[in-house]
Amino acid sequence: MTSTLFSPIKLADLELENRIVVSPMCQYSADDGSANDWHLGHLGMLANSGAALVVVEATHVERRGRITHGCLGLYSDDNEAALARVVAHCRRSGTAKLGIQLAHAGRKASSYRPWEGGLGLKRDDDPWETIAPSAIAFGNAWAAPRAMDREDLDRVRDAFVASAKRALRLGFDAIELHMAHGYLLHSFLSPISNHRTDEYNGSAPARLRFPLEVVAAVRAVVPRSVPLGARITGSDWIDGGMTPDDAVTIAKALKSAGLDFVCVSSGGITAEAMRGGGSLAQALGPGYQVPFAERVKREAGIATRAVGLIATPQQAEAILAEGKADMIALARAMLDDPRWGWHAAQALGAEVKRPPQYARAAPKLWPGSAYRA
Question: I need a labelling partner for 217 at 20 to 30 A (CA). Which of 15, 75, 175, 177 fits?
């Protein structure tokens, strides 16, 4: 049997041996933006998951752009040195290529970690000023951000560039820009959060202007041999918000700007939408975001990753075999089963790289694999 999931794909000059990607997953465990032993163990584990590409969690381009006090950053020399240790470990012991997602949390910054409630930080817990396209709070539990002025726009654009340069020095194989989940670049794109009266609002192309300025600046420093992409939204899941039509328009613009791939997610533009009410509650189910990726792939003609409640090898295989996406991004499925790629290969009759130290657990050498639940 020939598996589409385990067929190779090429992005720019990067050759991936299969279509499995570990999605960026925030760990909220950094020390002032710097990776530590948690990241060493976490990413080292995922680098041996059987995925061809592991994307490091949302990594923030300035200190005020972190979601929480524990979020990863790449805005200082200390951040860079700490992440270099983790990258070196993954290279030595893992089989996956490494990507990184560069992000700015915007009005969703200055928040508690999810296991602390996830709401906006209170006065006694060292909150900080947040920035956004408009002075509209993410929700009732968050302080209103300051509307960005020209200095802010230039600084944030340059911060993305500086972090991209750091990522290149660290040797990352791919770079992804976070333009979804209600964070800063998404908040410029959405009419829910962008109420500006200048050239950065007034129409969908105007709302795309600042994200495209960031894309152009980053693309100018990232060699064309290195894949550069973005995570975008397929829907805001709220009346008056972004729709799949917008996702197609944005993907086309990103392709024209020189990006190599998109990952299509959804939601997160407001605290209300985050609670999963209305149309989102009705849609939630296996592969609920795949139709967005399918439209983008078909109409924008850019390499596309599908993500969201994709759990089984058969489900992932069907999405690709039916032409609905080019790659599959897995998040919680990988936390639940850090050897998901190995088990998927066995289920689909394929082969996958594994460290020689673990070769004895391969089906050919360990009969017990046939009895695994």
Answer: 15
